[in-house]
User: Fold 50S ribosomal protein L11, chloroplastic from Emiliania huxleyi.
Amino acid sequence: MLSRRTPTRLALALFACCCTHAAGLLVAPAARAASPARAAEPRMMAKKVAKIIKLAIDAGKANPAPPIGPALGAAGVNIMMFCKEYNARTQDKMGTIVPVEISVYDDKSFTFIMKTPPCSALIKKAASVPKGSGTPNAARDAKIAGSITMAQVEEIAKVKLPDLNTNKLQSAMNTVMGTCANMGIEVKD
Assistant:
């Protein structure tokens, strides 16, 4: 008489057989030890971030004076090493403000990520004004500080897009136009 194996039990038996074969359980122990694929690689532990410091610094002009020196000194970071590296990486962007996010690790080493310039700085540069209006469009006695075109708004939005929480150009343009309104900068077609 044939044994009564259901399809499920048969599938489980086949699965167990395949798994032991794939895992190398049916291979001789000496062959398993000699296999280079089985050698465990040493794993490096990720460094633990102790502090994150955010600064807005003029490109190519980082120095140990405040606000950079006290912020980094309190975290135990080598201030001169940061200044030299930051100045070298921002040499081509002279004249703009480049925000930086510095990750300080437990062993006092650091890495930093450069962000795009602030939207207000890009708008002031495009409108050729030294500063925005003291009374923006929302106030009764609103003053217009300057104006920019939609093409300039689109250029600024393209620059700011990596740092914004959107990936749509139109949404980024709306963000830039909102900043323009708060600064008293008129957007013309």
Summary: Residues 7-22 form the longest helix (16 residues).
